[in-house]
Structures are given as structure tokens and as C-alpha cells.
Amino acid sequence: MILARIDGTVTATAKHKSLENLCMLIGQGVNERGEDVGEPWILLDKLGAGLGDTVLVTSEGDGARKLTGHDTIPARMVVIGIVDRGEERK
Amino acid sequence: MRFGIVKGIVVMSRAVPILADTRFLVVEPVTRENLAAGNGKGGGRELIVADRLGPRVGQMVGYVEGREGASPWYPRKAPVDAYCSLIVEGLDYRPPVRRRKNG
Questions:
Q1: Residues B21, B55: contact at Cβ < 8 Å?
Q2: Model pTM?
Q3: What 3-state DSSP class applies to B40?
Q4: Is the Cβ pair A36, B30 closer than 8 Å?
Q5: What is the pLDDT of residues B50-85, one digit of tens each?
Q6: pLDDT of res. A68
Q7: Using CA atoms, how far apart are residues B27 and B8, in angstroms rounded to an integer?
Q8: How far apart are the first and last CA of chain B?
Q9: Contacts of B20 by beta carbon, 8 Å cutoff, 6+ apart
């Protein structure tokens, strides 16, 4: 799983049928200090995450299959939680 | 899924039967900088992506890599590890202005 910040939304002219009725967000991976890591992802969301939210994302395809009930879904990055606050102890 | 720009089409003279109705795209992944610039450029390392949606060269798509690339053929098993999941219509992309750490 990774942490990501929601930086926007995506709309599509055409998409796989399993993606119908799902919110598609632009997520930027971040580290524990909130710094950007890597390139943006297209995330699937059913929790209602919004711009600027930090979210917990699973990269395991089973998450997308269970979220949608579609075994044929060509996606694997799914929002599974909206972060309230993070705390790192050393 | 990642963002990519369709750079071309791969045409094959033969393919395994399960891929008979599948197109193959040359896709260049889009970097954060190019996504923010909205310049239609990719900037990443090109890869080949299986497709059944039919985007044109120059269009932006969303593609998935890995095992989920073969999911559209489930329960059959296809030898595919990248698939075009959507054709982008529009973006509302508003990243904050801050320093970036590569990783």
C-alpha cells in the first residue's frame, strides 16, 4: 500500500465497462513527510476523497476486483482509506 | 493506472489466437511535469499496451501494468501485461506547488 495526495480528477471518453460509475482521481504518491514520490496514478475511489486529501491506496488487484465486483477490471490502484493524520515514531 | 500518450500502433502478421481481436499501442508514459504542463507530451520510457478501445495517435490514455493487464480476458489467460483501460477526455489537475523528491 502507498500514501497518495489527491491532485485532481479524470474523465474518459471511453473506458472498460468495469470502470463505469467509479470516481477516477489523480493521485500523487507521497512519503511520510508529505514529499512527492514518483509519477501520478489514476486511482479508483468509492469513499469520496477530494482535492488535497491524503489517502491510503492498495496496489493489489484484488482490491479493485472486490470494490467493483468485476473480475475483469483492468486496474489495481484503489483508495481504501482517507487519512485523518499520520504519526511516525522513532 | 498510469497516464500515457499514444505514439503509434504495432501491427503483427501473426499472434497467438487469444489476441486476434486486440490492437497494440506504443505508449509513452506521462511525467508529472508534462501532465501539469498539459503539453501532450509523455516523457517516460515507451511500452507496448494491449487495446480494445481504439484511441488515436496523440491521445492520452490510462493504462494498467502487471497481472491486471490480462484481467479483461478472465477467466481465460492472456499473455498480456499492459492494457489500455480508458481514453482520457479531460483532466482537472491541480497539484500544489512544492519541492519534489524523485523515487
A1: no
A2: 0.92
A3: coil
A4: no
A5: 999 999 999 999 999 999 999 999 999 999 999 999
A6: 84
A7: 7
A8: 17
A9: none
Characterize B52-79 residue by residue with b for buried, 16 or more Cβ atoms within 10 angstroms of its Cβ, and e for exposed: ebebeeebbbbbbbeebbbbbbeeeebe
pLDDT of res. B47: 98
Q: Read off the amino acid at residue B92.
A: D
CATH number of A2-11+20-82: 2.40.50.220
Tell me if B5 sits within 8 A of B30, measured CB to CB: yes
Partner B contacted by A77 (CB < 8 A): yes
Which chain A residues have a beta carbon less than 8 Å from that of B103? 29, 31, 37-38
Question: Is B94 in contact with A35 (Cβ distance < 8 A)?
Answer: no
Domain chopping of chain A, boundaries: 2-11+20-82
The rounded distance, in Å, linking the Cα atoms of A79 and A90 is 27
Tens of pLDDT along A24-72? Answer: 999 999 998 889 999 999 999 999 999 999 999 999 888 889 888 999 9
Domains present along chain B, CATH in parentheses: 2-87 (2.40.50.220)
Task: Inform me whether the pLDDT recorded for B5 exceeds 60.
Answer: yes
State the SS3 of chain A. CEEEEEEEEEEEEEECHHHCCCEEEEEEEECCCCCECCCCEEEEECCCCCCCCEEEEECCHHHHHHHHCCCCCCCCCEEEEECCCCCCCC
